[in-house]
Design a protein that fits this description.
The complex is a heterodimer. By secondary structure, chain A is of the alpha/beta class. Chain A is 38% helix and 15% strand. The relative contact order of chain A is 0.12. By secondary structure, chain B is mainly α. Chain B has a domain of 163 residues. Chain B is built from 15 helices and no strands. In chain B, α1 packs parallel to α4, α11 packs antiparallel against α13 and α14 runs antiparallel to α15. The longest helix of chain B is centred in the first third of the chain and has 24 residues. Chain B starts with 9 loop residues before the first helix and ends in a 13-residue tail after the last helix. Classes of the chains: A alpha/beta, B mainly alpha. The interface between A and B is large, with 59 and 41 residues. The structure holds iron/sulfur cluster (2 copies). The site of one iron/sulfur cluster (SF4) has 15 residues of chain A, from α13 and α14.
Amino acid sequence: MRTLFQFNGGVHPAEHKQESSTQDIACAPLPTQLIVPLQQHIGQRAKPLVQVGDSVLKGQMIGQADGATSCAVHAPTSGRVSAIGEAPVPHPSGLPDLCITITPDGAEQWVERTPLDYQSMSPTEVRKHLRDFGLAGLGGAVFPSHVKLNLGKLAKVPTLILNGAECEPWITCDDRLMRERTADIVAGAKIMQHLLNADEVLIGIEDNKPQAIAAMRAACADARFEVIAVPTLYPSGGAKQLTKILTGKEPPSGGRSSDIGVQIFNVATAYSVARAVLHGEPLISRIVTVTGNVDQPRNYEVLLGTPVKELVALASPRNDTQGYIMGGPMMGFTLPSDAVPVTKASNCLIASSPKLFPPPPPALPCIRCTQCAQACPVNLQPQDLYWFSRGREFGKAQEYNLFDCIECGCCDYVCPSHIPLVQYYRFAKGEIWAREREKQQADLARERHEFRLQRIEREKKERADKLAAKTQGSKAPSANAEADPKKAAIQAAIERAKLKRAGVMPQNVENLPVETLKEIKEIEARRAQLKQAMEKQPDTPNS
Amino acid sequence: MAFVSTPSSVSAVMLKVLFALVPAIAVYQLYFGPAILISIVLASVTAIAAEAAMLRLSGFPIKPFLLDGSALVTAWLLALSMPPLAPWWLIVLATLFAMVVAKHLYGGLGNNLFNPAMVGYAVMLISFPAHMTQWPALSTLAQAHLSFAETLQFIFSGALPDGMKLDALTMATPLDTLRTQLLLGRGVADISSMPVFGTVGGKGGELLALAYLAGGAYLLQQRLITWHIPVAFIAALALFAFGFHAYDAARYASPWFQLATGGAMLGAFFIATDPVTGATTPKGKIIFGAGIGVLVFIIRTWGGYPDGVAFAVLILNMCVPLIDAYTQPRVFGHGEKNS
Ligand code: SF4
Ligand code: SF4
């Protein structure tokens, strides 16, 4: 028996798992259109490879990874590209993003699928393929997998952890996946183990999923992977928390888990790695739990890009459904509309109704009861962070480790004053980022200004020199140009490069790249939302 | 933001605290007469009226805040700390002071630095020391008894039934007795044989202490308080008492006596554990509780007042920001050493 470790606090919200966990995974039918966001992962958005009107095949790459932290996106089915442009996406900011819309032709015609002989390939090669297969973490964080599988300078990462804890209430997609597609999960883990050169593979599953544990144990018997039942306690499925439970080690604050010799992936990611490497299938679908205020809660295998509206219709939402939560009730967010598509991050859709998720009573002041601190898995003092965030003492908030907060919502859950604590932390984090950026921009502007002054100075001097040369006589200048053709050529090249760069580089603060602009817009939107929400708090009249 | 939450609320928390006080009130009433019930009612009515008025003045929504129950908790704790046979205006004044100055002028619920009940108590003790000694005698020891109606009349008008003297009703508390008798040069063992003393503490008072202990156990079981403050308080007080008692048993009372008398148990479980004005980090709570325990012993033994809970709590309230700042727990993922 392995000794398990504990993290501080944690909570036991009502599980609501049995609603959707009793039925097997169903295949969602082909939707009328597929809206594929180019940014479904953390990092740089993928670059579109197709144009409106193009025909695409199922599994064809339509967006290419852009930079080191990025991964590809693919056509989920065969059809025609009907639009490329901004469309609503499932993001808490509610802002639209660049999407490629595909009208299916119904033929489901695949691109050529070539399995990889990964054992004879170099790890770098395999990782490049994974990037082009669009692999990103399917637990919800959607970090590009090939980045996490990079050993870098390390000879190995001794411990590989598969996260099958699935600790959020209502969500059962990993549970069903572990029960039904066990072999591919194990195969994926083997590939990851190979890439990381890992000595041991630990699979952590909360003990409220006995069937999944049994299935995984049976499949792992000869792989010598260890399937470990961990006590059901939210948020045991947090990557850092599970690492602590299984190994006793804490991923360092601000560092990576590989710093302590551990790498952790969701079980669904392992499954998709196996599909990609062994079957040549890029990531074009995932399992989504559809539950909550619906008549037939169930898990579906869904093509990425399927509009939420078409997916939830399969589960028959009840009449009083008010909206949809993406993710679980602890960390999820309300979708801006049901027109948004399912993405790599969508593990669960919960139809919400006022009965199922009644709005919290009005918030009262913090009574410093420290229920939140007792529940915080990171061992923060949420009541202090709240105090600093509300008072806009952001420096203090950072000093009290605001950025270690994983926004798990445990503090929200227990607070007897029903203070939306996490909202305050997001607000504070957003403000701090915004300020950081403003500072950077100010620095940049100052640099530019200084540069400009220098240039003016130089030009003045050049003019004066020219004038002096002119007065000296008219023989010298032409000779100068002829004498040094090399210099002239270099000058021309520099001019060309300058022109080229001007096209892609930010010219000034008002003309930032789209990513940055979008980020700023997002933060602004979030700020506005939070401000609004906080103004509604009754405890603010004298603040 | 989480879409789900525990059904707990501030009102539920406060109601449970009130509930935890019920056994103590029952014992109090049984052994020391009905006066306590009257002062609880007086304090409660005053507290609610003051709270409503202050909420109105400061522009807070009245209903949710009035229903939070915190005013009642302050009122009850205050009533249990004050001598119930004192004239009606004493408890009213104390409550007003607690609610208006100590709570609302500091910003209302959650913002006050000092424990409101203890502020009210301390101000009365300093301003009206004579009235603050009108403790009812244990009913089995009292030379006379008042009915409920007579008690009411006495509290409101100061008039006693014909021929009855106040002395017949009140009595020095065990802590008081110990103090004065020690000054007269008697030894602890000798003093403890006086009728006001019981097995370990004061007669009747011992049971009251047990009732507070039971209430405290309930609060712990309901996870409304953590063990840190009460345990540190009791341990510190007992340890000091033990040390001095062992050194000179004739001059220093036993740890049991210290724990079973005065406001020790009320203070340990209900007053020092007030979340708003107490330390919040686990280590901080231990320092906070132990600090109060030590101060209670010092004030009782060498100070000018017989009991020291109120002053000890207020002094430690002042130290809370400092204590919290220096006792931040190690955050997940931060090295063992740097906190
Ligand atoms: S749980 Fe709520 S009321 Fe209690 S200390 Fe935390 S923030 Fe304050
Ligand atoms: S949301 Fe942040 S502060 Fe609150 S319990 Fe989770 S980690 Fe702690």
